[in-house]
Write a structure and sequence with these properties.
disordered N terminus
């Protein structure tokens, strides 16, 4: 049984909204460039947030939707989500993640306090999100929206060696 889900066109399923090609390629590339100085290591983020353990990979703070550099992106994404789901939603938290496919960056989690969560795939490496019972494969420059209570993680590289690393950037946000 194949538990992978892959879609080319905008699609709403019973739990997922998938929107391909949501930004221009120039805007997508600029967003990666703009996030670099904002990314914190897992240890820096843990210290800043008062967490007992370091977060995996690198991540911005969760207030990215208030950053003027990203206002147009969040406006576009929120408008598109509302159009498809026909719900009055707002962004509660937003951030960018960086991982390199290392198994140590696997971190199963849910997003408490939110109704829906979204992931925007900024780079072509391991596009998709691993859920408890399936892998939802996506394409570069696509957006996946799903119920926040679903347990999920970023996928890891199939071969765990130093030659199989990549820069995987995703933008994530929670909707209320």
């Amino acid at each position: 049984m194949n538990n992978n889900v892959y879609l080319d066109n905008p699609k709403i399923t019973n739990q997922f909204l998938y929107i391909p090609e949501i930004l221009t390629d120039i805007r997508r590339q600029q967003s990666i460039h703009d996030c670099e100085p904002l990314l914190l290591t897992g240890q820096q983020l843990a210290e800043y947030c008062g967490l007992s353990r370091a977060a995996p990979g690198r991540q911005t703070l969760t207030e990215l939707h208030h950053n003027d550099l990203y206002a147009d992106i969040f406006e576009t994404m929120l408008h598109t989500i509302k159009k498809y789901l026909k719900q009055d939603l707002s962004i509660d938290r937003a951030w960018i993640n960086w991982t390199d496919g290392d198994k140590q960056h696997e971190c199963w989690h849910t997003h408490t306090g939110a109704k829906l969560s979204a992931v925007y795939y900024m780079t072509p490496y391991n596009c998709g999100t691993k859920f408890q019972d399936q892998f939802f494969e996506t394409k570069l420059n696509s957006l996946l929206v799903f119920p926040s209570h679903l347990l999920h993680t970023a996928p890891v590289a199939i071969q765990q060696n130093k030659y199989n690393r990549y820069d995987r950037y995703t933008m994530a946000f929670d909707l209320i």
